[in-house]
Design a protein that fits this description.
Elements lengths: L4 H9 E3 L7 E4 L3 E5 H14 L8 E5 L9 H17 L2 E3 L6 H8 L6 E4 L13 E4 L2 H8 L4 E4 L2 E8 L8 H12 L7 E6 L8 H9 L8 E3 L4 H9 L19 E6 L6 E3 L7 E3 H4 L6 E4 L7 H11 L9 E4 L4 H9 L2 H8 L2 E2 L19 E4 L15 E4 L2 H10 L27 E2 L31 E8 L6 H4 L13 H4 L11 H8 L2 E4 L12 H8 L2 E6 L4 H9 L3 E5 L13 E4 L2 H6 L4 E6 L4 E6 L4 H9 L2 H10 L1
């Protein structure tokens, strides 16, 4: 029996466990990336391990999230990350060089390699045939230190692409169609592998758009084969030597299969407030809009910008619409300037933003009250834009650009004939904004520069014999990490200061939660299905840790967040019967007796007692051997220290 592309790469990198679906495997990591919102904590964790220099083939630290410097905090974080990178063997992509996923695709990604990044959209690298996975910062730190990265051996979903996209139908519409079919939790425990004759019709930037938003499926990652299209892209980036052909065997076996005829797709949009709330533009209608934002790691490539410039040429942005455009990298911005496309955008009235994440994470460009904003981004969670009642629609760059002109949601097929958009045979390559690390002989002389906002990792402790704690919060289904630990211009600068940022934990749901949890000393959070979907931000685990949360009991977890809770030493529990969710109320006193003994004995079925009502509730504590040891030790940092000492 043949192998899927996913199986081929995983098999070549497995260092612990066996390729048995549903079991835990450890894989060797070739490359890592961090961004500044998660990077400071990841590097503090790396420092705590005592490993002098990274052991990966390539590790890169990007500055792309906290670029709005309204105080000293972000600048201090950037300076700290730059000094750590120089000392410990990490390449440093300076502010202004671009969004981590766009730059990594351009300059560092290699087909067949493994990459983990402290950002949930790391699967962008799957566009060139990498196994690229989003992870918590602590997992990235361990990988930089030479440790394996552990995942559940995934099921593999084959997405068979046939046909070719019709004019003005985009790659964004492909992934929105997949989301419409699978939902935001349909990819949990799975890798999405794209195959079929339609693959060859998609450029690498288009493939990267699709794998990028695979994160919204809850998938482990998504991947395309490495073919002649990949080779041409890498050749244009002057990196053809890293190309290798990679594809699934003809007789490969898949766990699920989805068939998409690209020729039949129509322009789609994800409606508020979830990426899988997908409708056609015809179903939505010509609603009046207030804002358009084009960019993010999903849709900020040169190809995207070429299409936007074509649509804007000779036009003027509607007077009732604010249009902002953020090219994804310095390379893209520079080439737009060189070929005159930037001038077209400026002439049309677009507001040109720096090459960074910006509005995608609520870092500026928040829409007006109840404003309707069309965005080429990947998430439209409630309040993520910075405006709590903002109505955010996720669309293609083509739909965004034409709608900015008309002032209403507009089908891009109304534009008329579409020209052929071709990527250049050679990209402008200038890596002067990527700082290489110091030579190994000079690393000891490099000083780590720390600002006053940079605080140490929260205090942890081994799992206690029993847990007796109040339910400090009860939340519904599909709670995102934006609910747990919001982003935005006011909060992101505190990412290096867990005591300070914890004051905003869950305030989207309950403004009193941080104060209540801290006063309780120790507590348990109860939640619904798909708890923790969205960003990989480990702060959504570290802030609850600081606030005394000992366990989280939910109907089901999103993959990365569950791993982050384990890494923080917080016990992840699920209801044996989801109906028991109704048997707990906020403020109830809860108890789990002999929990340490149960975990030590790998006992999955345990009993939680609601002391307030007297009801006993069966819950599941499903921990593998390694995850069990991490929880017992009090978290991954403690576990790693113990392992290194041994």
């Amino acid at each position: 029996m043949g192998l899927t592309l996913t199986e081929k790469i995983l098999k070549n990198h497995i260092v612990d466990g066996e390729m048995i679906k549903g079991t835990e495997i450890g894989i060797r990591i070739d490359q890592t990336l961090t961004q500044d919102a998660t990077g400071t904590m990841a590097y503090l964790e790396f420092e705590a391990m005592g490993v002098p220099r990274v052991k990966t083939e390539r590790s890169v630290a990007y500055i792309d999230h906290n670029t709005l410097q309204s105080g000293f905090e972000n600048a201090d974080d950037h300076r700290f990350i730059g000094s750590v990178a120089k000392k410990h063997g990490i390449y440093f992509s300076r502010p202004g060089n671009g969004i981590c996923h766009q730059v990594h695709l351009e300059r560092f990604g290699i087909p067949g390699k493994t990459l983990i990044g402290s950002d949930s959209h790391t699967p962008t690298g799957g566009g060139i045939g990498m196994i690229a996975i989003g992870a918590g910062g602590l997992d990235v730190a361990v990988a930089m230190g030479g440790g394996a990265y552990y995942i559940t051996c995934p099921k593999i979903v084959k997405v068979e692409l046939t046909g070719k996209l019709s004019p003005w139908v985009a790659a964004k519409d492909v992934i929105l169609e997949v989301l419409r079919r699978m939902s935001v939790k349909g990819g949990v425990g799975k890798v999405i592998e794209y195959c079929g004759e339609g693959v060859s019709t998609l450029s690498v930037p288009e493939r990267a758009t699709i794998t990028n938003m695979g994160a919204e499926l809850g998938a482990t990652t998504s991947i395309f084969p490495s073919d002649e299209v990949t080779r041409s892209f890498l050749k244009a980036q002057q990196r053809e030597e890293v190309w290798v052909p990679l594809s699934a065997d003809a007789d490969a076996q898949y766990d699920e299969e989805i068939n998409i005829n690209l020729s039949e797709l129509v322009p789609l949009a994800a409606c508020p407030h979830m990426p899988d709330n997908v409708k056609s533009v015809k179903e939505i209608g010509n609603i009046k809009i207030d804002q358009v934002c084009i960019g993010s790691c999903t849709n900020s490539s040169l190809l995207d910008m070429m299409k936007v410039a074509h649509i804007l040429k000779g036009k003027t942005v509607n007077p009732d619409v604010s249009l902002s455009i953020a090219p994804g990298s310095k390379q893209v911005l520079n080439m737009l300037a060189q070929n005159g496309l930037l001038s077209i955008m400026i002439d049309a009235g677009a507001r040109i933003l720096e090459s960074a994440c910006g509005p995608c994470i609520g870092m500026g460009q928040s829409p007006n009250s109840k404003g309707i904003s069309l965005r080429t981004f990947n998430r439209n969670f409630l309040g993520r834009s910075g405006t709590k009642d903002g109505q955010i629609y996720l669309v293609s760059p083509e739909m965004a650009a034409i709608s900015a002109i008309t002032g209403v949601l507009t089908d891009p097929r109304d534009i008329g004939e579409m020209p052929e958009f071709k990527l250049p045979e050679t990209f402008t390559v200038n890596d002067n904004m990527i700082v290489p690390p110091a030579a190994e002989a000079d690393m000891d002389s490099v000083e780590i520069l720390r600002g006053p906002n940079i605080k140490p990792f929260p205090q942890t402790a081994p799992l206690s014999d029993s847990i007796d704690a109040v339910c400090s919060l009860k939340v519904e289904d599909n709670i995102t990490t934006d609910h747990i630990m919001p982003a935005g211009a006011k909060i992101l600068p505190l990412r290096s200061n867990i005591p300070a940022i914890s004051k905003f934990c869950f305030t989207v749901c309950d403004e009193q939660f941080p104060e209540r949890a801290l006063a309780a000393g120790k507590s348990i959070i109860v939640g619904g299905a798909n708890y923790g979907q969205g960003s990989s931000r480990e702060h959504a685990a570290l802030a609850p840790l600081y606030l005394g949360v000992k366990a989280v009991l939910v109907k089901s977890f999103a993959r990365i967040h569950r791993a982050n809770l384990i890494n923080a030493g917080i016990l992840p529990l699920t209801f044996a019967d989801e109906n028991d969710y109704d048997k707990i109320s906020m403020g109830d006193e809860l108890a789990i007796e002999d929990i340490r003994k149960s975990v030590e004995n790998s006992q999955a079925d345990i009993t939680l007692k609601n002391k307030t009502t007297g009801v006993e509730i069966p819950v599941l504590c499903e921990l593998s051997g390694r995850a069990k040891d991490i929880i017992l030790a009090g978290g991954l940092l403690d576990y790693t220290r113990e392992s290194l000492n041994k």
